[in-house]
Write a structure and sequence with these properties.
Blueprint: E1 5-9, H1 13-25, E2 31-36, E3 40-42, H2 47-51, E4 61-63, E5 72-76, E6 79-83, E7 88-91, E8 95-97, E9 100-103, E10 108-109, H3 117-120, H4 127-139, E11 143-149, H5 159-173, E12 180-185, H6 197-209, E13 213-215, E14 220-224, E15 229-232, E16 237-239, E17 242-246, E18 249-250, H7 253-256, E19 267-268, E20 281-283, E21 288-289, H8 302-319, E22 331-339, E23 342-349, E24 357-364, H9 365-379, H10 382-399
Parallel strand pairs: 1-2, 1-9, 2-5, 9-20, 11-12, 11-17, 12-13, 19-21
Antiparallel strand pairs: 3-4, 6-7, 7-8, 10-18, 14-15, 15-16, 22-23, 23-24
């Protein structure tokens, strides 16, 4: 059999899963190369716990090399360009030829592009920003806490609403809630609009039950750091004492400057196979653009990157002579942490016709435990990962929810 080389770009959830799955599927004569510029894998779903002080930075970080299957070649380098005609990936040090390419470079945070952001807002979508917010919370003696969405799209659709719920819990536990006000501002018409009106209403109710003011259809234009005010597109202003804001997102520069990108900068892919318009080139996760039947985009979330990575690994294996491959079904799930050891859980079919069908499970301790086990299944020790994965599979059978691992 002719030896082939698969190059995977990005060591996040999608890239890590794709590389490991490919190594498990492909015969040893085939090479699997993972290129990632960061040495560590940082578990983004735990940023909200980091934000409230429930986690330390070292608890959500692991060396990427310890999470890869034996036989995956890890290259620590920054990708500078893609030569799709020659089937080559160029880094600052050298280039790598491929027979199949998986682009899993994620979405890039761009806080500097939003006026006033850097001088006024805490970026809880970033590990350092979440840690700084945790430090600020320790000395916060009350006032107006605002969670704001600067622009669309952004990854993890539940994140700003979950952040508001966890901040409320933190202030309540510290006795600061009676002297604090919490508000959410978003340009969206409702929370998580792609999931439909029922889901939006359920999340809105979670916020209302805790006295969190939800302000929808409020697009921002800038932040005034000196006045401690949000400035909206219509000229209105809202003050804040503590601001946690979702930063603008964009596709990575190497993607935007490649032939893979659409005018939006994101990579359009086939919804079932994750193939791009270029032969033997696939893209998964936050860097992709998939339009659902209702005209809305598939949310950018790690759960989809994870599932897509497995599908792509099988697609590549099939193209190398393996058995027929499964396709991506658009099913996904997420937790909505409420604090106090409780969480809600949403799961749904996003490829359903004519619109996604999403169910939000009643909040409880069992769902919070599931989120903890999910975290441990990714970045725990070897024994922890095995035990947590087994527990999640058992929980999936008992609850009827698709396994998270």
């Amino acid at each position: 059999m002719q030896a082939r080389t698969v190059v995977v770009l990005g060591g996040g959830v999608g890239g890590l899963t794709a590389a490991n799955e490919l190594r498990a599927l492909l015969p040893p004569e085939h090479r699997v190369i993972l290129i990632e510029r960061q040495r560590d894998h940082v578990f983004a779903p735990s940023f909200l716990w980091l934000m409230t002080g429930a986690r330390r930075p070292d608890q959500i970080r692991r060396k990427l090399s310890t999470l890869l299957r034996r036989g995956v070649e890890l290259v620590e380098a920054e990708v500078t360009s893609l030569d799709l005609e020659r089937k080559a990936v160029i880094t600052r040090e050298r280039e790598y030829s491929y027979d199949a390419l998986v682009v899993a470079l994620g979405a890039e945070l761009d806080p500097a592009s939003f006026p006033g952001y850097a001088d006024a807002a805490f970026n809880f979508f970033d590990a350092d920003g979440a840690a700084r917010l945790a430090a600020a919370l320790k000395s916060f003696a009350g006032g107006r806490v605002v969670v704001a969405v600067t622009s669309l799209p952004y990854k993890c659709p539940a994140a700003p609403y979950e952040a508001a719920l966890l901040l409320e819990d933190n202030l309540r536990r510290r006795g600061m809630r009676p002297r604090s006000e919490i508000a959410v501002f978003t340009p969206e018409p409702q929370p998580m609009p792609v999931a439909g009106p029922t889901m939006g209403a359920a999340v809105s109710q979670l916020l209302a039950d805790r006295g969190i003011a939800l302000n929808t259809t409020r697009p921002l234009s800038s932040i005034d750091p000196a006045a401690h005010e949000l400035v909206f597109a219509d000229g209105a202003r809202e003050r804040f004492d503590l601001l946690a804001a979702v930063p603008p997102h964009r596709a990575p520069e190497v993607v935007r400057h490649s032939a893979l990108a659409a005018t939006s900068g994101w990579i359009p892919v086939d919804a079932a196979t994750l193939r791009t318009k270029h032969e033997n080139v696939y893209a998964i996760g936050d860097v992709t653009s998939i339009t659902l039947e209702n005209g809305k985009p598939l949310p950018r979330a790690g759960v989809f990157a994870h599932a897509e990575a497995r599908v792509v690994a099988h697609q590549i294996h099939a193209s190398f002579g393996g058995p027929a491959a499964p396709t991506f079904d658009g099913k996904g799930y997420c937790w909505v942490e409420l604090g106090g050891g409780r969480a809600a859980f949403a799961n749904g079919a996003f490829y359903a016709s004519p619109a996604p069908v999403v169910l939000l499970r009643k909040p409880g301790a069992i769902w919070h435990l599931g989120k903890v086990l999910f975290e441990r299944s990714w970045i725990g020790s070897g024994v922890e990962r095995a035990l947590a994965s087994a527990a999640l599979r058992v929980g999936a059978r008992l609850t009827g929810v698709k396994s998270a691992v």
